[in-house]
Amino acid sequence: MSGERATATVAMIRQAIEDRACLSGTHVEFRVRFAPHALGRDEKGKHSVLAFEYGGLTVGRPHWVCFMVDRLRGLQRTEDPWRSGSRNCRPQFDLTEIEAAVDDSWSKKS
């Protein structure tokens, strides 16, 4: 991913988190619709977004996902209502650094 496009993608995701707005685009080669909940970096330093996916790859069932930011293409804001899943059903995702999040539930607890 070019540096300029990566910066724009990260900025769009960060703004969507702040606004609690949903996004659509492609991840790898599949259409996705999701509500981003946290943006950060994994143990390898790569940007990742933790999201609640409700359309596209979901095969009819919304679920929590972790997308690699450099594999997201053609992101656009949607007018879809904000979505979230149960915290009880949320798998443990390991981001070593959180850059933006809808709330502090994504931070690691000491």
Kindly describe this structure.
This protein is an alpha+beta fold and 110 residues long. The model has no long low-confidence stretch (mean pLDDT 87). A hairpin with a 2-residue loop joins strand 1 and strand 2 (30-41). Strands 1, 2, 3, 4, 5 and 6 form a 6-stranded antiparallel sheet that branches. It contains 1 helix and 6 strands, in the order αββββββ. The longest helix is centred in the N-terminal third of the chain and has 17 residues, at 3-19.
Descriptive terms for the model:
alpha+beta, 110 residues, 39% strand, 6 strands
Terminal CA distance = 34 Å
| Strand and helix order | HEEEEEE
| Biggest sheet descriptor | 6 strands, antiparallel
The number of helical runs is 1
Output the structural class: alpha+beta
Question: Which regions have little confidence, pLDDT < 50, spanning 5+ residues?
Answer: none
Shape: globular
Annotation, overall tally of beta strands: 6
Mean pLDDT: 87
Task: Give the C-alpha Rg.
Answer: 13 Å
The residue fraction in helices comes out at 10-25%
Strand content: 35-45%
Summarize the structure.
The protein is of the alpha+beta class and 110 residues long. The chain has one helix at residues 3-19, and strands at 23-27, 30-41, 47-55, 63-68, 72-77, 97-101.
SSE blueprint and pairings:
Blueprint: H1 3-19, E1 23-27, E2 30-41, E3 47-55, E4 63-68, E5 72-77, E6 97-101
Antiparallel strand pairs: 1-2, 1-5, 2-3, 2-6, 3-4
